[in-house]
Amino acid sequence: MRQRFSLARLLASTSLVAAVAMGLGGCTAMSKLSDVTGSVGPRTEAAPADPARAVDVYGERYRANPKDADAALGYGQALRANGQRAQAAAVLEQATIANPGNKALLAQYGRALADNGNFQQAFDVLSKAHSPDNPDWRLLSVQGTALDQMGRHDEARSYYASALRIAPGDPGVLSNLGLSYMLSKDLPKAEEALRQAYASPRASTRVRQNLGLVVGLQGRFAEAETIVKADLPPDQAAANVAYLKEMLSRSDAPRGAPKRTPVASLSQSD
């Protein structure tokens, strides 16, 4: 098949690398993912499904007692889910001051820092949220994404490897590993890791998109299109194909042209 896109130009494209990398600490994927700290809502009732409603509910509880760790956790997570990232980081920072050593708060605060692009600080905070003798594989994966955002890809992969020793075959960690290789332009290894992730019955839409992107970057666009739309309803398949085309054509945009906010991400574990 004739190569449809210039691989060298794509990998050299600042906009493409930024599009892949910017989601490392956030949750801007097309599919909603679980948080590293799990459910932080009240122990006796489920969190409201609507993010804006959750902000109202947990915000009221937080304002009634800002030093309550559970209230701060619920409010911080609701704010993050609703896209209010700066406010989430501020709430969780104050909560960690009021509750020093609370690992659940530190984990959530570290994620909020990553959401806001404070990757070194996020890495440092997450290091305090678990310990070498009792590591959390989800946090190891998030620390890896922070390192990838800082360009420290070899270090990042050591964190993914540690996470996979605890949670073998986890598709979210494998997806992060694959895109780590993509960021360092090792596309065959990126594809290998992403195919492992894609083979998991727990693989999300994000994994499918990431694999399609890496396959497309190697010039196999027809195969990439088949991957991103396989076994999906027509509307979702069309959305995935549109996403893939957008990502693969970013480097063709004229210099100085406005960039759309990318929807691809390399972030928290599924």
Automatic annotation (TrEMBL):
InterPro entries: TMTC_O-mannosyltransferase (IPR052384), TPR-like_helical_dom_sf (IPR011990), TPR_rpt (IPR019734), UCP035836 (IPR014596). PROSITE patterns: PROKAR_LIPOPROTEIN, TPR. Residues 1-18 form the signal peptide. Residues 249-270 are annotated as: Disordered. The keyword Signal applies. The keyword Acyltransferase does not apply. TPR repeats lie at residues 137-170. Keywords: Signal, TPR repeat. PANTHER family: PROTEIN O-MANNOSYL-TRANSFERASE TMTC2. This is Tetratricopeptide repeat protein.
